[in-house]
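sry for the spam today, last one i promise. struct tokens for design, 119 residues
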């Protein structure tokens, strides 16, 4: 289980064209991000289904190539929470990250604490 630090949520912070609303943080606390290594994806339970971030690992490089949040919850911070959890896990595993997914790239570009994970 990966728990995303609550200090990463700031009032209506723009991440690319997506907004992170701190009001939604309370909804996500019971929804930790988990690494499903067998399926090569990070998962997070949401009220509308499972949010996922698919990845592959080669050597010390994690490529995150796809993210998806259930349609009714898009734009509410769940994707941001999921990606932050995935990036925390990459850091814990001492992996560099290649973001092929545009949303993952936007999160990294807008959060200085993750920029050192880029290859």
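last one done:
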């Amino acid at each position: 289980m990966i728990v995303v630090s609550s200090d990463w949520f700031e009032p209506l912070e723009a991440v690319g064209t997506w907004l992170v609303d701190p009001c939604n943080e309370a909804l996500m606390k019971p929804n930790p991000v988990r690494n499903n290594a067998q399926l090569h994806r990070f998962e997070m339970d949401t009220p509308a289904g499972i949010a996922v971030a698919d990845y592959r690992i080669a050597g010390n490089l994690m490529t995150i190539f796809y993210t998806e949040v259930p349609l009714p919850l898009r734009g509410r911070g769940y994707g941001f929470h999921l990606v932050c959890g995935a990036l925390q896990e990459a850091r814990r595993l001492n992996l560099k990250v290649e973001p092929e997914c545009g949303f993952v790239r936007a999160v990294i570009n807008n959060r200085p604490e993750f920029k050192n994970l880029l290859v």
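The chain has one domain: 6-117. ok im logging off now
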